[in-house]
Design brief:
The complex is a heterodimer of chains A (about 220) and B (about 325). Chain A has about 220 residues and is α+β, with helices and mostly antiparallel strands. In chain A, strands 5-11-6-7-9-8-10 form a seven-stranded mixed beta sheet. A four-stranded antiparallel beta sheet of chain A has the order 1-2-4-3, with helices on one face. Chain A is elongated, with a radius of gyration of 19 Å. The model of chain A has no long low-confidence stretch (mean pLDDT about 95). Chain B has about 325 residues and is an alpha+beta fold. Chain B folds into two domains: about 170 residues, no CATH class; about 130 residues, Cyclophilin (Beta Barrel). The chains are: A alpha+beta (about 220), B alpha+beta (about 325). Chains A and B meet through strand 1, strand 3 and strand 4 of A and strand 16, strand 20 and helix 5 of B.
Chain lengths: ~220, ~325
């Protein structure tokens, strides 16, 4: 465990130095405990793979006191049972019209596009954390066979619902944002909706599976 | 109920308040006014709560009609506001007659001006805030920048609004500056001494590729930045990331909540509103300070703003 001042009003806590499920589970436990019992000085909590950042009200508390408080929270969090995770099924169409980078990904690995799809749908992914944009979940780990670096030049706008990969990660773009991940499919589901509880389709800690669907099924689901 | 009609929206005008803080775990960035101090003052001058929703204008203000009149205040960058072609004061309460046209031109100093109306701009809240987050198209007025013809309604105006003006001393203490104070970032010690020296001494030019997400700076590349093989981690507002090409980006209010570039430094709290006022082509420098100094300055600033709010209440 390592603490580091991220700014004059935030502190970064590294619970490990690698992308690992056990470390991420500690991040999640600490997040849930802080959300359950938020101290008065707490302004925001941002988790990631193996770290968690806490932003605080600097008129109430300073770095050493936040660090001391977080050590206590972490100790308690460690003994808690693992938070419940849901299994989320994401129907995705991998047809060329939705998958502008599928062919390049296949070529890079001497595979056929359908093999890339087979690999992508073969695993249950862990949602490490949400970041980048509302509802954007970092899912992993992608099978080694299709792990591909991100694009050298990011797209200015990625179609909403795009299923993407980068390195050993995969994700779905909840909004039409700029993005540098490679697009291999698209889901008709809404990843983030304010009139739903929770608003995000995929929450931190969830188990996520992709399911290949036809473009006809895509249209039907999109219309429903 | 009073309203304003957008006659021309300027370059980029959005509805903003003090943002939505506390939703990092679902990937939501704070958004809110890029210069929250200017927004707070504009609101105080029209008798609103300091965090009421107002308009943020970027570089060029635009033109707005007030069919039923109202009371306004303009703060931040000087875009030479006029009401029915008559020059009006900034940082002051200004009554607006029925049907008057407010026009703001190009800025002659900083990046963003704020227009507060008595009663505040009324929009549907997203996660408790009226702020527009352009990246995700959420919040604000239909999740987007204003367009010609948009009609924005105001909330009920406070009973009696006193005509006020911010004092010169106060304005001076909040003035944007070209030297931003920073504390070390989480990866500061991974940069070479040479790179850290260059960061503290060289001049950076604000580029055109700067927006509410971040301010991109141009300067000779910082020598030997560490390879960008970092594990993605949370990033705070005001983080100064160094790209693999050695260029610096200061994260703004619409920031991504996590990132994988090393961070050499972070702008301190009292200078964050100044980041929101950086406009293209100006030159800035960074000055290192300590966490203790940054905190003392923050406490002093908050005391000053709270005292002013009390005075105006």
């Amino acid at each position: 465990m390592r603490f580091c001042a991220a700014s004059d009003q935030s502190i970064l806590l590294y619970l490990g130095e690698e992308i690992a499920l056990a470390t991420n589970e500690r991040v999640l436990k600490l997040l849930r405990l802080l959300q359950k019992e938020p101290p008065a000085w707490l302004r925001n909590i941002q988790p990631a793979y193996c770290s968690l950042m806490v932003t605080f009200d600097a008129t109430r508390i300073d770095h050493p006191a936040v660090e001391a408080a977080l050590r206590k929270f972490e100790q308690r969090a460690e003994s808690l049972p693992a938070p419940k995770s849901r299994t989320v099924e994401i129907p995705a169409c991998y047809d060329p019209e939705f998958a502008p980078d599928l062919l390049d990904v296949a070529r890079a690995h001497n595979l056929k596009p359908k093999d890339v799809v087979r690999f992508h749908t073969s695993r249950t992914y862990h949602a490490y954390f949400l970041g980048f944009a509302p509802g954007f979940a970092y899912l992993g780990d992608l099978p080694e066979e299709i792990a591909t670096p991100r694009l050298e030049v990011p797209r200015k706008q990625v179609p909403v619902g795009s299923v993407a990969i980068a390195g050993k990660q995969t994700a779905v773009y909840p909004f039409a944002t700029p993005g540098g991940w490679r697009l291999i499919g698209r889901t008709p589901l809404a990843l983030f909706r304010t009139n739903r509880k929770p608003m995000e389709l995929i929450s931190i800690g969830d188990q996520v599976r992709f399911q290949a669907i036809s473009s006809k099924e895509f249209s039907e689901l999109a219309a429903s | 109920m009073s309203s304003l009609v957008v006659k021309s929206p300027g370059l980029l005008t959005t509805v903003q308040d003090l943002g939505r803080v506390g939703f990092g775990a679902i990937g939501v960035s704070p958004a809110g006014a890029a210069d929250p101090v200017a927004l707070r003052f504009a609101n105080l001058l029209v008798g609103n709560q300091p965090g009421a929703a107002a308009l943020e204008m970027t570089l060029l203000g635009g033109s707005y009609v007030f069919p039923a009149g109202g009371t306004i205040a303009i703060t931040g960058a000087n875009m030479h506001p006029t009401l029915n072609k008559q020059e009006i004061a900034m940082w002051a309460t200004v009554p607006v007659p029925r049907g008057a046209v407010l026009t703001l031109g190009p800025t002659s100093d900083y990046a963003r001006a704020y227009l507060a109306v008595a009663g505040g701009i009324k929009v549907k809240l997203f996660l408790g805030s009226a702020s527009t987050h352009l990246l995700s198209g959420s919040g604000g007025f239909q999740g987007r920048a204003l367009r010609k013809g948009d009609v924005l309604r105001f909330g009920p105006a406070p009973g009696k609004i006193r005509l006020r003006r911010a004092s010169q001393g106060l304005l001076f203490s909040l003035k944007p500056r070209k030297i931003l104070r920073v504390t070390d970032g989480p990866q500061a010690d991974q940069f070479s001494q040479e790179a850290r020296n260059a960061f503290s001494h060289q001049t950076f030019r604000v580029t055109d590729q700067s927006d509410r997400l971040g301010v991109r700076l141009d300067a000779p590349p910082l020598p030997s930045p560490p390879p960008a093989s970092m594990i993605t981690e949370p990033v705070p507002l005001g983080a100064i990331q160094i790209t693999p090409a050695g260029q610096a980006i200061i994260l703004g209010v619409d920031q991504q909540t996590t990132g994988g570039y090393p961070k050499i430094a972070n702008v301190i709290g009292v200078d964050l509103h100044r980041v929101g006022q950086l406009r293209p082509h100006i030159e800035i420098r960074f000055e290192r300070t300590s966490l203790a100094v940054a905190r003392a300055l923050w406490i002093e600033r908050e005391r000053l703003l709270n005292a002013t709010e009390q005075l105006f209440a």
